[in-house]
Design a protein that fits this description.
The protein has five helices and eight strands. By secondary structure, the protein is of the alpha+beta class. Strands 1-5-4-3-2-8-7-6 form an eight-stranded antiparallel beta sheet.
């Protein structure tokens, strides 16, 4: 699900909280040593996301925020902000010449550059949280 989060909206906040949980508390954020990635350059997106988000030749950036039951991919296009909500059970990642995030039949590919290399520890943390979340559902 993709939401336009340029302006705050209580309905959008409630939807996000229902799908991926409420934000971590301040102390939990400190214990985890941060819950947000740095910005990364978007290289390719699926056709449906391209029509919705990436109009024009501008460089588009995104960052990832961790939540208890999923992630939020925050995409910046010019002056607009969009949030792609992906619960952990729908999240798939691939490291093929960059980072690809797949969910809900869509994908987003980040360019393999210094921005992605700076976020290597964050990506490892995200994948560990996904494993911890999904092990509760499998015997």
């Amino acid at each position: 699900m993709i939401l336009n989060t340029t302006y705050t909206n209580k309905d959008n906040d409630a939807t996000i909280d229902n799908l991926v949980g409420k934000p971590y508390s301040f102390l939990t954020k400190l214990r985890m040593k941060g819950i947000g990635s740095g910005r990364m350059i978007i290289d390719k997106v699926s056709p449906k996301l391209e029509r919705a988000l990436l109009n024009g030749p501008d460089i588009n950036y995104a960052n990832i925020e961790l939540r208890p039951k999923g992630i939020l991919v925050r995409i910046t296009r010019r002056l607009d902000n969009f949030t792609w909500i992906i619960p952990y059970y729908q999240l798939y990642t691939y490291m093929t010449n960059g980072l690809s995030i797949h969910g809900q039949g869509e994908f987003l590919h980040f360019k393999n550059d210094r921005f992605l290399k700076n976020n290597k520890e964050f990506i490892r943390k995200m994948l560990n949280l996904k494993v911890i979340f999904t092990k509760d559902y499998y015997i």
